[in-house]
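[audit] Reproducing an earlier prediction to check determinism. Same input, same settings, fresh worker. If the C-alpha cells differ from the archived copy the diff job will pick it up downstream; this log only records the rerun itself.
[audit] input (265 residues):
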Amino acid sequence: MYLIIINGTYMVVTAKSLSVFTCYCLRESIFPMLAIQPPKATITTHDSWTSGPPLKAISSLNPPAVLNAESLEVWRGGVCLFEGLDFTLESGQVAIVSGANGSGKTTLLRVLSGMSRAADGSVTWRGEEIHRLDMENRLEITYQGHMDGLKKEFTVEENLQFYQEINDGQYPLEDLLDELRLSPYRNRQVRYLSAGQRRRVALGCMKVKSAKLWLLDEPLTNLDARGAKLVSSWISEHANAGGLAVVATHQRESLIQTASIEIEL
C-alpha cells in the first residue's frame, strides 16, 4: 500500500492503482508538454483469407467465440507502447502481431490473456470481461509464451500426459509424438533435449489442451524448417476447425498466409 497526496488530500492506494494513476499523469501532463504522440497500432485486413465454418445462431446462454479488444492503451516502464487499439477476432480467424523488439507484442498477448491489465480499454471473450471469466471459459484460452513451461525432471511423454490430463484433452499422444518427431525421445527427460526439441514439446503441450483461443508468442523460435511448417499447419487447421489464434512473431512471412488480420505495433 502507498500513501499519496493529491491537492492536499491524503489517499491510500494499492501498487496497481498507483501504476494506473502514474500512467494517467504521464499521459495527461508529460506528453502534452513534450508534444509527443503515443504510437498507434496499424490494423491490416487480409482479404484473401478464407475463414473456417460459418457461425451458427447461438443462444444468449452460449455466446459465440469472439475475442474483442476495444480502445486498448498499454504502458510499460512509464512508456506508452500503443493506444487506441481496436480489433475483433471471430471463430475461424487468425491475427498476426508484428513489430520491432520492445513494441509491445508480448505485453499485448498478456493483456489479451488476462495476465496483465491495460491502462485503458477492455478485452472480452464471449462477451465477458477477460478478468471475470469462469473456469469453463478460462480453459478455452491457452497462452504459450517465451518460456517452455515444462517440468525438466519429467520425460517428454510425461509432460504431454500431464498437460492433457489437467486440461481434459483427447489428442492421441502417439500421433502427436510422431508429428513432433519426438517418438525416439519419449522417455528422455526434458532437461537433456536441445532447445528446438524442448520448443516442440512445449508446443505439443499447448496442442493437447483443446483450447478454443490460442495466444502464441514467437512460436517458431528455435524451430527448424520442418518444425516451423508443422506449427504453421497447426494454426491453419485450428482456424479451419473454428478456432481462433493471435500470434506474435518476427517471422511474418512464415505465418502471414494464415492471417485474416495483421496488427503492426
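[audit] rerun output stored. Observation attached for the diff report: The helical segments are 15-34, 105-113, 135-138, 156-166, 173-179, 195-207, 225-240, 252-255.
[audit] end
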